[in-house]
Amino acid sequence: MAGLTSRVATEADLPALEAVMAASIAELQKGFLSPAQIAASRMIMGLDRQLVADRTYFIVEEGSAIAGCGGWSRRATLYGGDHTPGRDPEVLDPAKDAARVRAMYTHPDFARRGVGRLILQLCEDAARAEGFKRLELMGTMSGRPLYESYGFQPIEEIVDARGGEPVPLTRMGKRIPTR
Known about the structure:
The protein has 179 residues and is α+β, with helices and mostly antiparallel strands. The protein has one domain (4-175): Aminopeptidase. The chain is 28% helix and 28% strand. The protein has a seven-stranded mixed sheet. Strand 2 and strand 3 (65-73) form a beta hairpin.
């Protein structure tokens, strides 16, 4: 993680974030999904402007390059972008609900360099500060090894076909350790 810095994303970052997400979906899903499933993934993945508006979305940079992005949410939506059907903006109760880790993307040029792990730590620390005791996320097949190495456990296997092709996903959870 040497050389990586982080900050909270702003509305001015949105075009650059969309480019990182597109590159990540296109390249890092190869070997896990077929070309048709990668294309379908664009319907169920992508930018969620609510995270930026809530100030819960992080950018990881190396110098002036965006290495990755991701965030957490105190809202009920588990995954999906602005365009994904079925979103739920209801605010969660930290005493009984799990905070959501959302929209994690690493630029392919920075894969396997600690970007995802740094984002997970930022999310966990911020959710803990707001009183959450657990985290949940919806993991892609390419992201699952990272999430498991960070302590997330599978809860449920699903298939999302809203993009036209079935895309396998894993709902995962983790208890937030107390400090």
